[in-house]
Amino acid sequence: MLQLSVIRQNPALVKERLAVKHFAETSIVDEIVSLDDELRKLKQETEDTQSKIKKLSEQIGALLKNKQAEEANAAKKEVEPLKNQLASSQEKLNNTEKKLNDLLIKLPNLPSEKVPRGKTPEDNEVVKEGGEKPKLHAGAAPHWELAKKYKLIDFELGNKVTGSGFPFYTGQGAKLQRALIQYFLDFNIAAGYAEYVPPFVVNQDSAFGTGQLPDKEGQMYHVTEDDLYLIPTAEVPVTNIYRNEIIKETDLPVKMTAYTPCFRREAGSYGKDVRGLNRLHQFDKVELVQLVDPAKSYDALDEMVSHVEKLVQSLGLPYRILRLCGGDMSFASALTYDFEVFSTAQEKWLEVSSVSNFESYQTNRMKIRFRNASGKSQLVHSLNGSSLALPRILASLLENNQTEQGIDIPGPVRKYFGSDVIR
RNA sequence: GGAGAGAUGCCAGAGUGGUUGAAUGGGACGGUCUCGAAAACCGUUGUACGGGCAACUGUACCGAGGGUUCGAAUCCCUCUCUCUCCGCCA
Questions:
Q1: CATH class of A4-104
Q2: Is the ipTM of this complex over 0.90?
Q3: Which is deepest, A123, A308, A374, A376, by most CB within 10 Å?
Q4: A76: nt with nearest C1' to CA
């Protein structure tokens, strides 16, 4: 969530920035400012009363030690009305605090200066295009047909065992999936990211910390019996590793990578986009997370974008990088770059990575801080990005690399896959 | 799942109602000493929020949430987690 101090210092600027995200309820900002004023007054009031009670209690203690029972009783009488007063101002304080918090949670992160204006995906800015779109032979097939032809993925079997959106990867398909994961992880580790295998379910606090709750509750699978959520991305458990921690400045930047399956209910999204591997309820992804000094977070973002770009390039896929417009970016993000690869047989761009700087939006919820040079604790900035989401990479790879003889495996993946081609 | 024990500062570990934000030891940091280092000695060593230009100051925090009391780390209740034993099991 946004830092209260930012809102207090410049409510007008906050409103102006929120407009870029097409966030309409700007009156919330004014409400927050006035609730904050009220909160400080109540706090002062409460603390004054507490202070008085504390002093009297100390006196009572001293009196009793001196066996001055009568004086002690008199002092006790004095405390009584103060306690009533305390109870009532404390109740007001709690109510105000809760109201303030509820409103604070409703505000999305402020978009950075670089975010293009605009409302829909068409307004996203293409900042770069790379790679070659291949010319496919006549009769080239979309990936779901190739998957069937080479027995790589069994969608029907997934339907039978679980339901739609939960495919089986079989034989060479399973092996290719595993090879890609391992290649991606090694690529990240070589760039200084520490590998984790996190839990695939998280508790409420963690889901709240990265912004999935309360905003995107319907997006996650909820294990009600234990009140746990299946992770929609490794970002959730991995970023939460540092929840409520103060990181040593010398340990920054913290760079982490993790492979996990991701579970998304995708409620209400059916139709043409869900064909084949395009949109699944369970998919594999290798994720990057960084926790950095706030002064360096945009450099870190650039570095992550270029890291992911190198990875995509190494696979030889045609790609483009988009800077998301205010209307298309996520609630918690300040600036997001999406990577899309071209799926030649479908003639469609598929999103395979989303790299974002969340500034202090997540870390303020999670209280992830570091101690700065002057000894003060300060929120770090959090960033994350996919490197990469497997199914759409697989889809694009199958389609773009198909020949009449088989499917070519990209150079760097061959040693993991153990072969140059799928036949 | 059953029985028992426990949760205190960076760590270990005292503290069972009254100057306890918390003994003691270790670690870390600063200093003295040294050519340098070790040892020894001295000192410092929490977080959050509020007030103040600042020195400073108020409040809260001893797993979490409630309660008893003039006063709670300390007593009571609920929850969570950890450990030991038994059961089950990849």
A1: mainly alpha
A2: no
A3: A308
A4: B70
